[in-house]
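G., the chain you wanted modeled:
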Amino acid sequence: MQKTAQHLLDTLEKAKPFLMAISDMDAAQKPNPSKWSKKEILGHLIDSACNNQQKFVRTMAQARIDFVGYQQDDWVSLQHYQKSDWQDLITFWLAYNRHLAHIIGTVSEDFLTNTISIQGSEPFALAFIMEDYVEHLKHHLKVIIPEAKFVSKFSNVYNA
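Predicted structure as tokens:
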């Protein structure tokens, strides 16, 4: 999992200058009233980091776990990411994800086949959940910074 952890760190470093170059005003612009702004997307990525930290640690602690889902739209709305300072969101998101990279990079191989079921889903192995987290993060970064190119585990370049 050290490669996955490094892949996450590389993605953060690649995204950081692009994110820092976006003004607070631009980050608050909504493409339309029903879509998230860049602030809200990054807020969603913070929520995703939060939820995945729980998934990672709880799945390491138990061989099989059932986990709740979360209402992502409610989480974004109730936390008022739209009113948050853009630079603060970036700083928090980066720090949280560096911590997740640490967890991923130090996980014992003994735990990688432990499984988690999310809101009644089929079980997923911890290794898959960790790898999928990074791909999910890049999927949302593509919306915030479409001009950035990130390396994917699936190809040499991933536009996300």
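The chain has a mean pLDDT of 92.

Shout if anything looks off.
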